[in-house]
Amino acid sequence: MKKNTLPFAAAAAGLLLALAGCSKHDVVLPSIASIAVANPDFQMLEDAAIRGDVAVLLSNKAPDGGDYTVFAPTNAAFARLGLNTAADLGALDRGFLRTTLFYHVTGGRVAGADLAAGSSTPSAVGATITRRIIVRGADKYVNGSKILATDVQAANGLVHPIDKVLLTGGGNIVQTAIAVAEGKVFVQPELTLLVAAVVRSGLVTTLSDPTASFTIFAPTDAAFRAFGAAAGIPLNTTTEVGNADPATLRAVLLNHALGGGKFTPELNPGSSAITTTAAGGLSLTIGGFEGGVETVKGPNNATPATMAIPDVHCTNGVVHIINKVLN
Q1: Which 3 state secondary structure label does DSSP give 76?
Q2: Residue 170: is it exposed, middle or buried by C-beta count within 10 angstroms (0-12/13-18/19+)?
Q3: Does the pTM of the predicted model rise above 0.70?
């Protein structure tokens, strides 16, 4: 693996100068794929493009002769998901990886100046699977990922480096939770107990509603087991969850839901903690936005829950995977 020794902007600039040749007027731009190859800060993106079979796509113009715009995760962005080497990528579901990479691609040139607050652009996954631009102060975000630079020029489009991998399951909240539970995503935080609880509680229809929009804090299996042990309710297996009282599970799950799908830059507008009310009536404390994430705490949590995987975009909301049950 290449050492991460050069900032991506400096490396891209160096590549452009190297390809300019002797003429100061004829600058030969590299392709988007070539920028990833030449820049050590995009080593993991290069490896992912090869594994996901999109390297050729990003080496050429679009089939209609047009350009692409790519939101390009850095090595550090992949590392947030526990992905540090090409070997780590080899364990991933190739289809989900390919979908994820397509989610970073837009047809046409979308310049940095056009990334206005509240605007959205279609992705190569599909016209309805969009990304939202969010502005906080001087910073711009695509979904929950900070845009680190804009308008890195390529022969076949533009590159905007970002600090987090954009994640989508391409489906609704329930479908996405099932995909995570089945290990079809970048990391496997184990959401099998959450899926079983949603089914047992009768909330599948509600959380699959295409006309609704939710922010869901999704506890991992480890979080459910710890909660069950503390509450005297065995929740160690899907069988035990299936035998639990549906009304109790429903009440617990509704306290992990907020109305409106919000990414991390939108959950808390400031740097100090705020309170909000969950769909089940529980008062939740959302910590200040720091390092691209927030904490979330229920009144009876001794310590706040942290986000294991934030900003998973669903067709009817946003899921933030957390390490505690809110109670």
Answers
A1: helix
A2: buried
A3: yes
